[in-house]
Amino acid sequence: MTDETSTTVLPITMLPWHDGARGRLEAAVASNRLPHAVLLHGPTGVGKERFVAALAAALFCTRRGPRLEACGECAECALSRAGSHPDLHWLRRLEDKKSISVDQVRETCEQLGMTSMRGGYRVAVVAPAQVMTPNAQNALLKTLEEPAPRTLLVLVTPRPSGLLATLRSRCQRVEIARPAPAMAEAWLAVELGGPVPPGLIDSAGGAPLRALELAPHFQALEGQMSGLAAAVVGGRAEATGAAAEMMGDGLPVRLDWLEAWLGQAIRARTVSNGTQLTVRGGGELQRAAAEVNISAAFRMVDRVREVRRLLEGSAAPQLLVEALLVDLAASFGRRGGMQWPR
User: Fold this and answer.
1) Among candidates 23, 24, 21, which has minimal Cα distance to 42?
2) Under 8 Å CB-to-CB from 111, ≥6 apart: which residues?
3) Of 39, 95, 158, 329, which is least packed with CB atoms within 10 Å of its CB?
4) CA-CA distance, 66 to 142, in Å (whole number)?
5) Which of 122, 105, 106, 126 lies closest to 114, judged by CA?
């Protein structure tokens, strides 16, 4: 699954939960204090790249009103909608590379320093920014020390800690958070043309765009992961075989499912208002959730998040998932097993 929708087909409008981030930058534009660099962060699937595309379109737009929104009708908006505006530059890692190189950054910095092709703003976007090499990040620092007028550099990342502290300090941080569940469900219902399947938003980590992408495969995912998790906690599946079933392009979503299930187990154990919460999965998973030590459940959530982070640069992803499942069996299973080193 991809992190975001392709930039060449992005609409030039923002999503309902983008209002807070848009409002911050709108105020900066109104007071002629738009920063030269923005660090746009938030979880995968909340539409960070769509927000940037809409922001750039609004900056290019010649008929924009007081709101930071593109009119959608002028020549600049036509170029933006087609994904061919000459003053918008996207910097990504090359298809066969794991990182963004210093040479790529230098080329983008040169483009950002040239005269605007359309006489307005120039915008450069680095996504995902955390995969830049240290040398590439240092090359950006030089550009930020002497920025050209009417330029905007946007670093898009789900993990700001992956950037050098010196680079983060020169950017204005703007967050796009997950929307409230009611807003996410209302938006998804419109996009899906019907009711949102229970558990879909949780399994997507609360991120609506990720949920939309996951929706066609959700029932299959629910069946696979419920069976696999029950077999692990019940001692009927070894970690090696179970980890092999989780491998492939769908691994991030399977980890999301596992984190969502852990979250349900925690909420079911900690809710104190008398509400009866149901944990997904069959009776075996519900029993495991009811009996688990709450501290162990919280540790497992941390394990899942750590594995997700380590997978970005790991040459042995299956070993990471095996260790995670061993710890799941030890934390939730009656049979127990080896614990990860603390």
Assistant:
1) 21
2) 89, 122, 124
3) 95
4) 33
5) 122
By the 8 A CB rule, do 173 and 39 touch?
Answer: yes
Task: Name the pTM for this structure.
Answer: 0.83
Residues ≥6 apart with Cβ < 8 Å to 314: 320
* Cα–Cα distance, 260 to 110 (Å, whole number): 44
**Phi-psi category of residue 334: left, alpha or beta, with phi > 0 → left and psi -120 to 50 → alpha:** alpha
Q: What is the DSSP letter of 276?
A: -
Whether 232 and 329 have beta carbons less than 8 Å apart is answered as yes
pLDDT tens, residue by residue, 145-171: 888 899 999 999 999 999 999 999 999
**Tokens encoding 309:** 């982070």
- Contact at 8 Å (CB) between 153 and 140? yes
**Rounded Cα gap, residues 231 and 238, in angstroms:** 9
Partner residues linked to 90 by β-bridges: 125
